[in-house]
Protein 1
Amino acid sequence: MCGIVGYIGFRDAFSVLIKGLHRLEYRGYDSAGIAVIEDGIVGFKKSGKVSDLEKVCEQHIFRSRIGIGHTRWATHGAPIDCNSHPHYSENGKLAIVHNGIIENYHSIKEALLLKGHTFSSDTDTEVLIHLIDEIKTKTNLDLQDAVRAALRKVVGAYAILVLDEDNPGRLIAARKGSPLVIGVGNNEYFVASDATPIAEYTRNIIYLNDNDVACVNYDGLSIVNLNNIVQVPFIHELELQIDILEKGGYPHFMLKEIFEQPRSIRDCMRGRLYPDEGRIALGGIKIYEDFLKKVNRIIIVSCGSSWHAGLVGEYLIEKYARVSVEVEYASEFRYRHPVIDQHDLVIAISQSGETADTLAAIELAKKCGATVFGICNVVGSSIARNTDAGIYTHAGPEIGVASTKAFTAQVTIITMFAFYMAQLKQTISKNHLKEHLAELNLLPELVELCLHCDDKVKKIAEKIKSSNNCIFLGRGSAFPVALEGALKLKEISYIHAEGYPAAEMKHGPIALIDEDMPVVFIATNHSSYEKVISNIQEVKARKGVVIAIVSESDTQVNKIADYIIEIPEISEFLVPTLASIPLQLLAYHIAVSRGCNVDQPRNLAKSVTVE
Ligand code: M6R
C-alpha cells in the first residue's frame, strides 16, 4: 500500500505533486519520489518522509506541467533510495509509480534478464516498467497499448502511472485491485490513489474500474479496458471538504479526529435515525428488507479495528435482532473453506474500503452465493463498489493511521443496523425501540461530555507511560472495546498490550500481573458490574495498577481502583462507543509523552492493500 499522484495541466507540476504526496503520506511513509518531464524525464527519490524528498529537490528549478509522484510502504525490497519510486526503463525514457504487488514479477524478471535487461532495484515495479519498455520497443505499439499489453501479462494488484519522455503530453493511468481516481479540472487532470490530493482543485471525479487503462492528455482523456474496449467514464461529484484534510490547530491528526467524533457520529446518523418516530431507515440496504426479515445467519468479515467493530455488532445484533452472528478475520475467512450459501448475509466492514483481505473475502462470499453488504468510510472505494449494497459511515477522511472516528462511526452504524434488524424482525417492542433510539440520538452530545476527560487521562498517561506492558479487560460488548484499547496503545506507543474478556484473565494472563502492570478495566455499572469488580479485586490482590472506566454514578470501583475515568450514565448498548473515547486519549497521550509519531507509527500504513 502506497500513495500515487499524477498531474498534467497548466500549473507547476512539482508543487501539485509534493502537496499531493503530503496528503497521501498516511498511506505509506518509508520513502518518496517524483518524476516530471522537462526536456526529458527528471526524477528524484529518497528514503524517508516526503519532507526528506523536498530537501533533495531543493537545488533543482522545476519547470514542468506534467509529472508523477509516490509515497511508499515497502513490500518488495527494503525502504532504501534505490527501491523508492519512480522506477525507470533502462534508457531512462519511461518512468512508473505503482501501488500494489506484481505477484509474477519473478518469472517476468527472469525472462527479461535473459533478454539482457539489468535492474537497479529489488522491486516488482521496476520489472513492470522494463516489461512495458520491452513491448513498446519491440512492437512499436503506442504507449497506452504497450502498457495494456504488459498489464495483460501481469498477475497481481496495481494502480500505476506511467510517463514517457517521447510522449511528453501524456500520462497513462491503470488500475486493478488498487484504487485510482482522476480529477477532471479545466484543462488539467489529477490522478491519485484517493481524492485527498485532488479535492482542492476540482470536485469532478472519475473512479477508475479494475482493468481500466486511461490515457490522459492536456486536452482530454480516453479510457479502454485491457481488451481495448472503450469505457465511458462517469463523473461523480466529490463531497470531500478541504478543511477536514488539515490539522485545524491540533498537533496531530489523531487528536483532531478524536475530537471530531461528536460531529462524525452525528453525520453517520443523519437521515437514518428518526427518534420521534422510533424508527431507523437505512436507505442503502432498503431493497433487501424482505431478505433481511428471513436471514438467520450473518457473517461479519473485517480486519483490525474494523474487526473489533464487527465484534460489537455480534453482541448487539444477537441481543436485539436474535440473528446468529459470526465475526471473522477476513484474512482467515478467505482461506478456510467456510460453509456459506445464498441464505447468508456477509457484512464487510472497512474504513478504507481497500483492505486486500476484506476484498478477497467479499469475492469468496459472492462466489458462494451470499448477499454481501459493505460498511465503508471511503465513498467510491473498491469494497463499496464490489458489494451488493451498503451503508457509508460518513466519518469523513481519517488521516491518522490509528483508527478513531472511523471506528466509532462503524460501531454507530452496526448499532443502528442491530436496531434496524430488530425493527424488521419485530424482536423488540415499539416502546423499547423508541426509548433506545432516543438515547442513541444523544450520542454526539454524550461523546462531547466524554471528551472532557482529556486532562485527567493525560495525567494518568504520565503515570503509566514507562510501562512495558498493559492489559485491557472488559466483558460483554466492552470486551471488543478492550481489544480496541490494546490495539490503539500498541500501534502508536509500541507498548505491548493485550485485550481479554475480563473473566478470561484467570486462565493465564493473571500470571503477568505485578506492581509494574497497568490493567485497564471497562467497569461501567451494567450487566457484569459485580463480576468485573471481583476481577479488579483479583488484580489489586496481585499489586497490579488499575485504571477503570466507570459510570458517573459509580460507588464501588472508585474505592479500589488506582485511577478512575468517568463516562456519562448510559444504557449498556452505548458503552462500546463511549468507553472507546478515554482509551483513544490514553493511547494518544502515552504515545506523545514517549515521543512517538502518533500519526505515522513505524511499520504501519493506513490501508493494507496487500495480503
Ligand atoms: O481500512 P480498514 O478498516 O479495512 O482497515 C483495517 C485495519 O487495517 C485497521 O483497522 C487497522 O487495524 C488500524 N490501524 C487500527 O487503528
Note: The chain has three domains: 3-240, 247-441, 449-597.
Protein 2
Amino acid sequence: MTEFDLIYRYFDHQSDLTQKNHLGSASILKGLGDDAAVIEFTADAKWVSCVDTLVQGRHFSDDWSQVETLAFAIGYKSVAVNVSDLAAMGAAPHSILLALALPERLANEKWLSEFAKGLFHACSQFGVQLIGGDTTRHDKLVISITANGLIESGLSAIYRNGAQVGDKVYVSGTLGDACYALHHLSDESLSDSAKIAQQLAHRLHMPTPRVQLGQALAKQGQATAMIDVSDGLVQDLTHICQQSGVQVRLHLESLPASTPLQQVELTERLRCQLTGGDDYELLFTLPAGVSPPDGLDCSDTQITCIGEVISAAQPNSDTPLVELTYQAQVLSDDYPAPFAQMPNLQGFQHFV
Ligand code: ADP
Ligand code: MG
C-alpha cells in the first residue's frame, strides 16, 4: 500500500465532516489532500494549518555524529519544510507548535542550544512565533512541527486542483540540488562528485521556502494550482494532475539546474531533477499569456516555465499524467532518449 493509498483509505472522512464542522461562522474550506488545510472564520480571515514530521534515519542521517554536527540545520529545516507547505497555499506564515521526541544523548546544552538557534533563526527569517509544543523522551530524534498561516484579507488560497488545459507550468529556483547532495556528500572527498555535492549541501540541509513568491501568487490571483516540490517533481506534479483531472507535458531541456548541477552528466542530473526530494520549490500553473508576478521581494528567485497542461486526464487510461519530452520528442519505451531506458519516475515513498 502506498503512502497515499493509506491516507485516503483510512483517514479521509471529509464527506462526514462537511455538514458537521461548522462552529459559528468557521468552516473548513480545504481539508486533507492539499499542502495545508484552510479554515475560514469570517469572510476576510482564512487560517491555514499543516504538520510535517522529521524522523532520524529517514529525513536526516541516522548517524549520531551527523545528528550532533547538524543540530543547527536540523532546527532550521524542521521549520522551513513546514513554512514551505504554507507558501504552497499562498499563505503568510504566522506561528508554529513544536513536538520534540528527544533521545537522552541529545538532551544536553550543546545540542539543544544549537538546535534552538537554528529553529529560531528560521522563525525570525520567515516571521513565525513558536507558540507551544510537547517534549518527550525517545530513542531516536523525531521532530513534528505544526505550522499556521493566514491568507491575506480578500485573497484566496491556491489549491492543487484548479489546473486547466492550456495553462503553463512553472517552477521556482532550481531542481535536483538536494538529491545530488544527499547521494554524493559521502563520496571520496577529493572526487568531483563530492566537490559538487559540497557546493549543494546547503540546499539539502537549509532549504529556502518560497514564502514571498507564494504570497505574490495569491495576491496576483491568477495561479490555477500550486504545490511545493518536496517528494520529487514528477510525483508532486502528478498530485496537481490527479486533483485537477489533467495531463501535463514537461520539457526536459527546460528544467532549471543550478551552476554546480550543470556539471553533472545529463541523465543523472535529470533523474535528480525529476525524482529527487527536498527541493522545496513552488510548482504552479498560470493561464497562457499571464506572466508570473514580478517585483517580488525575492528577486534572486528565478521562475522557469517547464511545460504546459495538454489535455483533460483520460479516466482508466494507461497514459501517464506527466508526459516527458526531450528536443520535441515524447519519451517512451521505444524512444527513451536522453535515457537509455525509461527512468522510474516515482519520487520519495514512505510505503510501497
Ligand atoms: P505534503 O507533501 O505537502 O506534506 P502530502 O502529499 O504528504 O503533503 O500529504 C497529502 C495530504 O494528506 C495532506 O493534505 C496531509 O494533510 C494528508 N495526510 C497525510 N497523512 C495524514 C494522516 N495520517 N491523517 C490525515 N491526513 C493526512
Ligand atoms: Mg507540500
Note: The longest strand covers residues 45-55.
